[in-house]
Design a protein that fits this description.
By secondary structure, this protein is α/β, with parallel strands linked by helices. The chain has two domains: 3-108, ATPase, nucleotide binding domain (Nucleotidyltransferase, domain 5, 2-Layer Sandwich), CATH 3.30.420.40; 112-298, Nucleotidyltransferase, domain 5 (2-Layer Sandwich). It contains twelve helices and eleven strands. The chain has helices at residues 52-71, 83-87, 91-102, 111-125, 163-170, 178-191, 193-202, 212-224, 240-252, 255-259, 272-283, 298-319; strands spanning 3-10, 14-22, 28-37, 76-81, 106-108, 133-138, 143-148, 153-159, 207-210, 235-239, 290-294. The strands form two sheets. A six-stranded mixed beta sheet has the order 8-7-6-9-11-10, with helices on both faces. Strands 3-2-1-4-5 form a five-stranded mixed beta sheet, sandwiched between helices. Helix 1 (52-71) packs parallel to helix 3 (91-102), helix 5 crosses helix 11 and helix 9 (240-252) packs antiparallel against helix 11 (272-283). The longest helix has 22 residues, at 298-319. The protein starts with a strand and ends with a helix.
């Protein structure tokens, strides 16, 4: 018997809906994927609240998601909420309202759990071996770093320094002044001290980037260089020098000029500058010459975890 499952990921910038069908022989078929730029962190994340306008956008989007899941006759919905809702004083209140109006239950996950699930998602898409690799996911509210191999997570941490928070803190003038970039670098060195110690200890060989920032960097690179990207591929290799070229372009242009960059995504045009500064900072502490942009992240990790628990339940039933 086939089962249809929906994963809902309430990110700080983007809400994701992911519907899959699982057949009896465990074959997965993607039925529907949607992402909507809800931006619940806007005008509130730095104050520890979700603004009234953002709450309205969130509720509207979840009603749309509910309609879609009903149309696909989904039997199970698993919903997770991350940094913006996790840190907001009225975050749980919003989730209660969503449950009341749509019947969809969303659970707040810790930063530690979020990092773990992102790693599972990345491992599904990227070939790992016994050499440590650094996985990085830039959200609007938090950034997750995980160092791991094929067999285990060696170190993981979530930092509440996402792109919306960095934007509010450092990018008040556009283009971002060199003095602000330098100030941000000094601040990051203090904030990410535990990451730098972990890099020194485990010496990861590669940077794997999950999230929309890395997708956008890939789009800019391919469109500016007339590269045809394989639409079926889950990864894309971006060299350090290719990243540096895009980075220089992003930090020297204002918003209107950035919008004219081929491959730029409108919803990322503001946050991509501070996100690129963050990537540049991390690269300064790694010896890798490439960034692997990865299409899978949190929602795929949630699915992986869910499938694993279903398998465990079936095994328990067989053994009883």
């Amino acid at each position: 018997m086939k089962e249809r499952i929906a994963i809902i990921d309430l990110g700080t910038n983007t809400f994701h809906l992911f519907i899959v069908e699982i057949s009896e022989n465990k074959v997965l078929k993607t039925l529907y994927k949607e992402k909507i730029a809800v931006k619940i962190g806007k005008n509130g994340i730095s104050k520890g609240r979700i603004s009234a306008d953002a709450q309205k956008r969130a509720l509207h989007t979840l009603k749309v998601f509910k309609t879609v899941t009903d149309q696909f006759h989904v039997s199970k919905i698993t919903g997770v909420a991350t940094s913006a809702i996790r840190s907001a004083k009225n975050g749980q209140q919003l989730l209660d309202e969503i449950k009341s109006q749509t019947g969809i239950e969303i659970n707040i996950i810790s930063g530690d759990k979020e990092a773990e699930l992102i790693f599972y998602g990345a491992k599904w898409a990227v070939p790992f071996d016994d050499r440590p690799q650094l996985v990085m996911d830039i959200g609007g509210g938090s950034v997750e770093f995980i160092i791991g191999t094929e067999s285990q997570i060696l170190w993981k941490q979530s930092f509440e320094i996402g792109a919306q928070r960095l934007l509010d803190k450092f990018h008040g003038i556009d283009p971002m002044p060199a003095s602000k970039i330098e100030e941000m670098g000094i601040w990051l060195a203090a904030e990410l001290d535990s990451l730098l110690l972990a890099i020194e200890e485990f010496k990861p060989q590669n940077l794997i980037g999950c999230s929309g920032t890395f997708d956008t960097l890939t789009e800019i690179h391919t469109q500016e260089n007339n590269i045809i990207k394989d639409s079926e591929s889950l990864t894309f290799e971006l060299s350090r020098s290719d990243f540096q070229n895009i980075y220089q372009e992003l930090i020297t242009k204002n918003k209107q000029q950035r919008l004219e960059i081929p491959g730029m995504v409108t919803m990322r045009v503001d946050m991509i500058v501070v996100a690129a500064c963050l990537i540049n900072f991390v690269l300064q502490h790694l010896k890798t010459n490439t960034i692997t942009a990865c299409a899978y992240a949190l929602k795929e990790g949630v699915l992986f975890s869910l499938l694993s628990s279903i398998e465990e339940e079936k095994e328990e039933e067989i053994n009883q």
